[in-house]
Amino acid sequence: MLIDIIKCHGSGNRFAMVDAVAQPHVAATDLAALTRALCAAPGMQPCDGLLYVVRDAGLYAMRMFNPDGSEAEMCGNGIRCVARLVRERYIGDDMFALRSGGRTYHITRCEDIFPQMPTFGVDMAIATRSDDFGFMPAGSGSFVAQTIPALDAELRFTALSPGNPHIVAQADTVDLHRLAALGEAVKHLKHDFPRGINVSLYTPCGRQAVFAATYERGAGITFSCGTAMTSCSTAAVLTGLCEAGRDIEVYNRGGMVRCLCRIDGGTITTRLTGNATYEWSGRASWDGTAVTGIACTARMDAETALYDRFAALTAAKYPSATCR
Prior knowledge:
Oligomer: single chain
Number of strands: 19
Structural class: alpha+beta
């Protein structure tokens, strides 16, 4: 079986994307097995998962699989890449809806975050309760800046779900070793985290600006995570670090996005805006068990170089001591 793929990224969060609408034979295969094989295939690294463009409830939709083959309900960086493909191939509108994980998300083709860089925004309704928050006291409506003693006695976590579950905590610096330890510890705390969880640390790096890093459930530490940056910016508003209704710049090891958190009564909606960059397109050979070859057919070198310039400029805006 030959499968056309696009290697793409949102804020340095890299994926292989497969248009399963144009390639209906893909839907008949084991998507989890294909994901594991493609993510591990020579020439694909780094690859933080696979994005499948499908149809759901009459709309174009995303299915996102982590490198370990587990399926995520939502991926903020990935859905921007899917939005670009759907707009360019099927819709053409600047505003439309996409589905992921059984939910509908409003998409906007936004003003470029950097000149000539394709930029999309996704509005995410933020839930403050979830069955994934086993640590939350019964009857609580939210969990904001509180400790989870079984995980860490000092960090004060905020629990949010923009489509998938997150805990985020403000820290003086973003220590990747500490973050990795937190992500690994979650796997052994089944009562508090029955289906695992995404864990992030963030720190302020200016007015209406934070730096964030994430240990992603099913993937480990990635260069960025869209729903995590959405959650970190939302937590920064809920704890008073940043203001609602104003753009928040969220820096990460892969670049930068903008988040806009709006609170209307008990409703929280945060828009995540950032790049959707294509690196190359090609074709993979899949025999149902293994990827037997990958051929690159076209490289988007100018697009890749443009993003590299943007990432270098954003990296200069936050102190190197922010992340270690």
